[in-house]
């Protein structure tokens, strides 16, 4: 079998050749005419090789043209998808353990140095990529809103303060270290017109900062209002926007956002509508889309594209989730995400840094699959890629434009960071290269150093240069580095009392250093001091100086043992 042409043509000719031998639809007569003989008799076979190769060549050319024509239609789409896949940084990942409950809020400062996570466990944790090591521990954890779940977190445009939106009616502003800067005032819940109250009267749903003005932020609540606030004025809101249904009734906004230039305010409502106002005109809406999502469903997220001409929303019914793209005049595309229940009413979506992709997460019930991060092409909303994140739902997602890293919050208390060492910058790559710090165990306890700058030179202590040098110096000191004596077992000795000695007598014995093991002769112990008493009489000798100048001591006599005495009368030694 001989095939001619390039490697691609060789493959095509091989397939055609195989189809010809198998006999696609040709009869014996056609085969005989092609093969160059007239019949199947006993005559000797003669082959026309030139005719055989010519027929094979023509068939290969025809089939090659049909295949190449088919690939010419598909190849632009394939190349476009490959271009999208090259932009997604998902080759590496790190996992941050926030807690045991869902991570319901994520925020990254504009520089990408610090990450803030909030969850259903009421905690807000601060992560510093430059300060962390491979252990990946948060450097601060606090509960700013006590027993209320955290619903939204966002850094300001300058990155110096953080907006905290929880399940209560008062939003808070914290600085970079977690200390409170502002707490919004609570409104009067007995006033019917919400525009006459100073603040929200029901649970908050969402909030965000103004993209241009660093002192202004936006919140929406179950009281049916969207309010703007000024960081310098905590006594009252700045302006009020009241969404209305088609019948003019009050509807609850579930999410809100600013446009990229800060001139528009958008809110997604529970009746499935998306209402957009001019920031300076709070009475009538500028754009109103009444069929963005199904009525009665929660619109969980609104986000503007970086060019400011496209608004993406995420919402769903009881069993289906949809992703919508809204131009500033008409809603033109939907994308069905999954046939799964909408478990989290704060699942968001966001655009890629180049504005060509749109990503969001899916929610799953326990033990019913894995939560996925889905990537869609912006214009056609066709899914181009997906990442299986964890065995729980994907609640939050964030694609930082400077770091080119994707942050994901899951329903099982994890915060994952996806990055590519080639495409990404800083962020998670700063902490994964650091080894875990070893715990330092001090051998001895150093004394506290008291600084007395105005003390006299004779009372001034020497200044400690470093803890390490002081430890080495104390290690050489035999007194400081003396090994502690083990506890006494059994009866006390040498002035030390056993562990059970807690009485007054035990204390006295310990202080006078009585040695109970001294079994010497008491007579010899007294006569040991006879020479000193004779040379320096002080107590006994002066008293007997006249009556008995010479002391008389009893002589030792051997006691006679009476052998006739019974055994029980004999003295026991």
TrEMBL record:
UniProt-listed Gene3D superfamilies: YVTN repeat-like/Quinoprotein amine dehydrogenase
Kinase listed as a keyword: no
GO CC annotations on file: nucleus; site of double-strand break
Keyword Repeat: yes
Protein's organism: Sinocyclocheilus rhinocerous
Record InterPro entries: WD40/YVTN_repeat-like_dom_sf, WD40_PAC1, WD40_repeat_dom_sf, WD40_rpt, WD_repeat_GAD-1
Region (Disordered): 462-500, 550-573
SUPFAM superfamilies according to UniProt: WD40 repeat-like
WD repeats: 96-128, 197-239, 258-278
Keyword terms of this UniProt record: Repeat, WD repeat
Biased composition (Basic and acidic residues): 462-485
Taxonomic lineage: Eukaryota, Metazoa, Chordata, Craniata, Vertebrata
Protein name: WD repeat-containing protein 70
Family designation: Belongs to the WD repeat GAD-1 family.
Acidic residues biased stretches: 553-565
Source taxon at top rank: Eukaryota
């Amino acid at each position: 079998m001989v095939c001619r042409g390039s490697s691609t043509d060789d493959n095509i000719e091989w397939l055609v050749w195989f189809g010809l031998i198998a006999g696609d639809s040709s009869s014996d007569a056609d085969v005989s005419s092609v093969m160059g003989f007239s019949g199947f008799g006993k005559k000797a076979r003669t082959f026309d090789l030139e005719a055989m190769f010519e027929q094979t060549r023509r068939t290969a050319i025809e089939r090659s043209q049909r295949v190449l024509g088919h690939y010419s239609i598909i190849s632009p789409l394939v190349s476009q998808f490959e271009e999208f896949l090259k932009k997604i940084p998902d080759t590496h990942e790190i996992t941050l353990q926030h807690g045991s409950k869902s991570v319901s809020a994520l925020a990254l400062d504009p520089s990408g140095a610090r990450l803030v996570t909030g969850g259903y466990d009421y905690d807000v944790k601060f992560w510093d990529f430059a300060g962390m090591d491979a252990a990946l521990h948060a450097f601060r954890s606090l509960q700013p809103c006590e027993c209320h779940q955290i619903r939204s977190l966002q850094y300001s445009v300058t990155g110096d303060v953080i907006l905290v939106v929880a399940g209560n009616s008062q939003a808070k502003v914290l600085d970079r270290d977690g200390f409170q800067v502002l707490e919004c005032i609570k409104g009067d819940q007995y006033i019917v017109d919400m525009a006459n109250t100073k603040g929200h009267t029901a649970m908050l749903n969402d909030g965000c900062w103004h993209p241009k003005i660093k002192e202004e932020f936006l919140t929406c609540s179950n009281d049916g209002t969207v309010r703007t606030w000024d960081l310098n004025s905590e006594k009252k809101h700045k302006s009020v926007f009241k969404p209305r249904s088609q019948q003019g009734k009050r509807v609850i906004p579930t999410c809100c956002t600013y446009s990229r230039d800060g001139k528009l305010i958008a809110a997604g409502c529970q009746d499935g509508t998306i209402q957009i106002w001019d920031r300076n005109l709070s009475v009538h809406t500028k754009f109103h889309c009444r069929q963005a999502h199904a009525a009665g469903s929660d619109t969980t997220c609104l986000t503007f594209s970086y060019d400011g001409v496209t608004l993406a929303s995420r919402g769903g019914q009881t069993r289906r989730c949809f992703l919508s793209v809204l131009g500033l005049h008409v809603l033109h595309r939907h994308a069905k995400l999954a046939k799964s229940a909408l478990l989290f009413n704060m699942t968001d979506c966001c655009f890629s840094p180049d504005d060509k992709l749109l990503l969001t997460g899916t929610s799953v019930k326990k033990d019913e699959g894995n939560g996925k991060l889905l990537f869609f092409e912006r214009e056609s909303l066709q899914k181009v890629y997906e990442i299986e994140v964890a065995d729980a739902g994907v609640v939050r997602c964030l694609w930082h434009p400077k770091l080119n890293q994707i942050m994901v919050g899951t329903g099982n208390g994890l915060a994952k960071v996806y990055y590519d060492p080639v495409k990404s910058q800083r962020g998670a790559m700063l902490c994964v290269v650091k080894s875990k710090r070893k715990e330092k165990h001090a051998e001895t306890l150093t004394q506290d150093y008291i600084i007395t700058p105005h003390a006299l030179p004779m009372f001034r202590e020497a200044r400690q240069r470093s803890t390490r040098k002081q430890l080495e110096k104390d290690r050489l000191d035999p007194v400081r580095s003396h090994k502690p004596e083990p506890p006494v077992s059994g009866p006390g000795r040498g002035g030390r009392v056993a562990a059970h000695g807690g009485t007054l007598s035990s204390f006295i014995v310990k202080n006078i250093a009585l040695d109970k093991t001294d079994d010497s002769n008491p007579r010899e112990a007294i006569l040991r001091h006879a020479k000193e008493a004779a040379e320096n009489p002080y107590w006994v000798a002066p008293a007997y100086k006249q009556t008995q100048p010479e002391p008389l001591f009893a002589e030792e006599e051997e006691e006679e043992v009476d052998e006739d005495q019974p055994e029980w009368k004999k003295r026991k030694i």
